Amino acid sequence: MITVEEAQEIIFAKIKTIDSSEIDIQDALGRVLSEDVFSERAIPPWANSAMDGYAVRSEDIKNATKGNPVELKVIERIQAGVKAKSVLREGEAIRIMTGAPMPQGADAIVLQEETEESDSGVVKIYLSVESGESVRVAGEDVEIGDLVVSKGTKLTPPAIGMLANIGMDSCSVYNKPRVAILATGEELVDLKEIPDEGQIFNSNSYALAAQVEEAGGEAILLGIAKDNTEDLVKGIKRGMSADILITSGGVSVGDFDLVKDTLQDLGNEINFWRVRMKPGKPMAFGMLGGNPFFGLPGNPVSTMVSFELFVRPSLLKMQGLKNIFRAKVNATLKGELLKSPERRHYIRAVTTFNENQWESTPLEVQGSNILHSMVKSNSLVLFPEYETKLEDAQTVEVILLDDPNINNN
Amino acid sequence: MITVEEAQEIIFAKIKTIDSSEIDIQDALGRVLSEDVFSERAIPPWANSAMDGYAVRSEDIKNATKGNPVELKVIERIQAGVKAKSVLREGEAIRIMTGAPMPQGADAIVLQEETEESDSGVVKIYLSVESGESVRVAGEDVEIGDLVVSKGTKLTPPAIGMLANIGMDSCSVYNKPRVAILATGEELVDLKEIPDEGQIFNSNSYALAAQVEEAGGEAILLGIAKDNTEDLVKGIKRGMSADILITSGGVSVGDFDLVKDTLQDLGNEINFWRVRMKPGKPMAFGMLGGNPFFGLPGNPVSTMVSFELFVRPSLLKMQGLKNIFRAKVNATLKGELLKSPERRHYIRAVTTFNENQWESTPLEVQGSNILHSMVKSNSLVLFPEYETKLEDAQTVEVILLDDPNINNN
């Protein structure tokens, strides 16, 4: 049986970056930029006032003090958005608002608070300032040709603000991978139905769809295929037009696990069937009609953990992200854990950051059918393949699945 | 001038939880549940097999060993989804697949690997098992009446899986707050236009819209109001039908800052106009037509930081979340910082978790017009009101704005 890392290596080698499209920046939050964006403009485009005050020639006021103010003639008043008509000459000032372009001839701004203007259009300057004082120079945020947002960046609010800042109303992003999801199992009924005895609701499709969406993909629910070849072939064929096809269930060794045979009949080159992990040992990966196929196990926890380790990073890689893995931290284990050797266990745990360390408390119930263990945890403690005991208070490796609970202090 | 905490207290006292709606669970990722969800069903609904194998009476095989197997007659074969027709009696076994209901009379499962079935319908059992072995009892994941997801929970993939698990195809969530955004300023032009000298692109509306969306709201862009009362009144009136109205710019003390007068004419009860912080000192909050109004400053960094501190937690509170603040950590400062006293500074920084500590490196350029400082940072270092110096390597408080960069190790 191959390890998780071996399985990941096989999978990620087959995952290619998806095509990209031009979209409106208003739709771009969370999408991944597919090209470097260089600015064709300087920001600000021209020197401008950083404050409300008076544009002056610093030379004119070099001796100004509170006791001995310099008087200047106010020749014009400009707000942001307006260029001064006048050129400033000796003995003159222009009333200026924040963001307005520096008038020709002026080289500094005196803040309003350091001045007093009379009704007769003369302003007293109470403070000398250096040349360049309170002036924002052209290009101090962005220079022409600057790389403002790089290819492979997940677009955050500041990045979108920056695109608007340089005048872009659209940008090129990687497409959302379309992920077809097929649940398999004779025991499954859909949410609107009433289960008979022996039947349960199909929950995997909905959990997987949310995982796909959270990873930036678009889920296509194919419903349920019962445990017969006809149903499976029909479902799988429908899913082959998507960028990725996921099934849940039917990849174990049971008498009724038909997915394997069906896939092989359809020409799927299966790379492996089992991974040395728990939950989630039964797990298939291959290429089907040129696209990746993931045969995930049927138990709800196994399905979600397998998605986390194999499908989520694949979706991020398709979207051009460089960092495709969740954050991993070293944490102090709260409590003891025991297992038999051979498989690596992924233990559902609550991990918090307290003062100066991460702490992980495993949930009591860890069965692969216990979905509430996923709801209540925010992390997975790694219990290595051949270890049989993890001691209370020892350091363990932990994958953070969700926002870490960092205690405000 | 009031402090950030005083301003937050005034604001959050006015923020009420928004109405809720019933939505499909497929649309519920990231939404906040507006009612406790209790299960009307047990999960699993009935005892079932945890493994592929044989359902037996443990009493029948208590002496079974590899050398001295017990032979049982295989009377039926059942897969998941199917209830056995037979009742198991002494000397009998039922072939059973994972998830299939336990047959009447059976009390344990022997794994397939510990058995050998002959063509004549007899199975040799090589291992004795305890009563209950490999049996999942009814309700071991969820019992009838269990609180499975609580009111105020942000719906994650496992929570959505859990709703499906108990058969819910829709759930009640808080509405997305509709946030109207009005940019003000004579200097602004929209993205499709060509700016004249003195004009710049309206970037604040797009950055704010992305911040609104990231906080679970729905942005309504009202475009640009020029610096005249008519334009402002028109824009503000259009925004009054939203749940929240945000303006950017026009709340400073400049000659052309008309927002203040306009709002007062429209009956806005303004609670304050300035906050002891940088970037972002000019900042208005009040109630307008019964809804919160935020007058944010016009500089792009000031706008975004003010949104972070005041609007984002308001949106989260409206959506019924309990924890409305970003994570705050103590970090080691890399480099020295200086400022004048009086205002608290929020220093844009890159914060990472390395080995066992958080480290924050401030960006070099911190001007409130330098939008690239927001793009390149992931956190805000707090430089307290009356401090004038933060030493290299000292411990500082840091707000994490984005995924913290936790170094995989």
Gist?
The first copy, chain A, is α/β, with parallel strands linked by helices and 409 residues long. Chain A is 18% helix and 33% strand. The radius of gyration of chain A is 32 Å and the shape is elongated.
Structure write-up:
Two copies of one chain form a homodimer. Chain A has four domains: 4-16 and 176-318, 3-Layer(aba) Sandwich (Molybdenum Cofactor Biosythetic Enzyme, Chain A), CATH 3.40.980; 28-42 and 142-174, Molybdopterin biosynthesis moea protein, domain 2 (Alpha-Beta Complex); 48-136, Molybdopterin biosynthesis moea protein, domain 3 (Molybdopterin biosynthesis moeA protein, domain 3, Beta Complex); 328-406, Beta-clip (Beta Barrel), CATH 2.40.340. In chain A, 18% of the residues lie in helices and 33% in strands. The first copy, chain A, has seven helices and 29 strands. In chain A, the strands form eight sheets. Chain A has a six-stranded mixed beta sheet, with no helix packed on it. In chain A, strands 16-13-17-21-20-18 form a six-stranded mixed beta sheet, sandwiched between helices. In chain A, strands 22-25-24-26-28 form a five-stranded mixed barrel.
